[in-house]
Specification:
The protein is of the alpha/beta class. It is built from 16 helices and eleven strands. The protein binds NADPH dihydro-nicotinamide-adenine-dinucleotide phosphate and magnesium ion.
Length: 395
């Protein structure tokens, strides 16, 4: 830590839902956080606005088209501007205390690896990289003495109640799921679900990709794998309960009969403030005078329902991919990413998302060797296979 004890932050995916929430919290404590790097992909306008507000040392736009706009918006400032993914990776070599990875999709993989190769601390919201290359990320972390802070709300909940000395006594952990917008939609209506309906999540406000993942419940499938990776647990010890109120986010059940849970509002700023301050806590709610920041937790009705595997086959599909091992989770993740994007563009139907993944897994060999090359290669091939399946379907 430098600058009079300030924590220097890199916020990747700064213009997204996670990135903005991080900056909302960190921006309230300018005496504690110094923004070193802000990065986004092509939303130059929003990135420039955030840069003018938070005055980072470096701003990176990884996509190419809008860089001139960024330059013109930030001309006359002392902020250093960079373009492209390689420049983003170089910026991560700066002296940074904490990197929050809020990039959506597999694009988050190389930045995560770079932070850990530098022995840095990584607050990882980007679950796709953990699904596609979990063992690689964990091994890189171990080799270089990096630190990974689980940031996804359910994993952050487990992290908050985790005690290393009790690991052997864990019976199972529970990740809760709100059930998304279609928990009680008749299954006959599923083929007619539109992107606009799927984007309307009942509890959480999130970016488009994870909102669709929540609607298909592939989000929970990805999160089961994410939990196996982060906590070194076998898949059968990771349970899912549908909990529509989203008050409890994660629980650990021990073999002595105790279950320990984390509760909180459905607001990502809660887990994000935890990773920002870790190993301490930030009194941002106490300090806030904004009434919107003060939700009242309603304990009057807390339901826990089993998952309906017929309605949401994605969760079992993800479990199978993890059990199959090798590159299967990577292939699943890549096919899902392409299919979600096609669904958002109205090119395929809601049910086609899972069908696309099943297709990619059925035609590709899952291999066994996990290296950066094999992951990137399998990701590209699975994306190509899925694009071509979708193109043929459209004919
Ligand atoms: P958003 O879509 O809101 O934001 C995504 C961010 O990533 C944007 O800043 C975007 O930049 C940037 N980005 C997109 N593509 C690339 C790329 N190829 N290279 C570099 N940056 C890129 O997503 P969310 O904030 O909702 O989610 C981010 C991650 O966090 C996902 O992995 C998600 O699963 C996870 N997560 C999100 C939660 C939430 O509440 N939102 C909760 C738990 C996990 P630009 O705007 O310029 O396109
Ligand atoms: Mg989650």
């Amino acid at each position: 830590m430098k600058d009079g004890g300030k924590k220097s932050l890199a916020v990747l995916g700064a213009t997204g839902s996670i990135g903005r929430s991080v900056l909302d919290i960190a921006g309230r404590y300018p005496d504690q956080y110094d923004i070193a790097v802000l990065a986004a992909h092509h939303n130059a306008e929003a990135l420039a606005e955030l840069a003018l507000r938070h005055r980072p040392r470096h701003v990176v736009l990884t996509g190419s088209d809008a860089f001139p706009l960024l330059q013109s918006r930030l001309s006359g400032t002392h902020i250093r501007l960079h373009q492209g993914e390689t420049s983003l990776l170089s910026c991560l070599d700066e002296d940074i205390d904490l990197t929050v990875n809020g990039i959506s999709g597999i694009a988050g993989l190389l930045p995560s690896l770079r932070v850990l190769e530098n022995g840095g601390t990584l607050a990882i919201a980007n679950k796709e990289s953990l699904v596609a290359a979990g063992t690689l990320i964990k091994e890189t972390c171990r080799l270089h003495n990096g630190v990974i802070l689980p940031t996804d709300s359910e994993h952050n909940a487990i992290f908050q109640v985790w005690r290393d000395r009790h690991v052997k006594a864990i019976k199972h952990i529970v990740l809760t799921a709100s059930g998304g917008p279609f928990l009680s939609t008749p299954i006959e209506d599923f083929p007619h679900i539109t992107a606009e309906q799927a984007l309307r999540h009942p509890r959480w406000s999130m970016g488009p990709k994870i909102s669709i993942d929540s609607a298909t419940m592939m989000n929970k499938g990805l999160e089961i794998i994410e939990a196996c990776v982060l906590f070194d647990l076998p898949e059968h010890q990771v349970e899912v309960r549908v909990h529509p109120q989203s008050v409890i986010h994660g629980m650990i059940t021990y073999s002595d009969g105790s279950t320990v849970a984390q509760l909180g509002p459905a607001d990502m700023r809660v887990p994000l403030s935890y990773v920002l301050a870790w190993p301490d806590r930030l009194p941002w709610l106490e300090d806030s005078e904004d009434t919107d920041d003060h939700p009242v937790l309603d304990f009057s009705q807390l339901d826990f329902l089993p998952l309906d595997a017929v309605r949401f086959p994605s969760v079992e599909l993800a479990r199978q991919a993890w059990r199959q091992g090798g590159l299967a989770p990577c292939i699943m993740n890549a096919a899902n990413e392409v299919a979600v994007s096609a669904f958002l563009q109205h090119r395929i139907g809601f049910m086609d998302i899972i069908a696309s993944i099943e297709h990619a897994l059925s035609v590709m060999s899952v291999g066994s060797e996990i290296s950066l090359e094999s992951v990137l290669d399998a990701n590209d091939k699975a994306m190509a296979v899925t694009r071509s399946w979708i193109a043929k379907k459209g004919k």
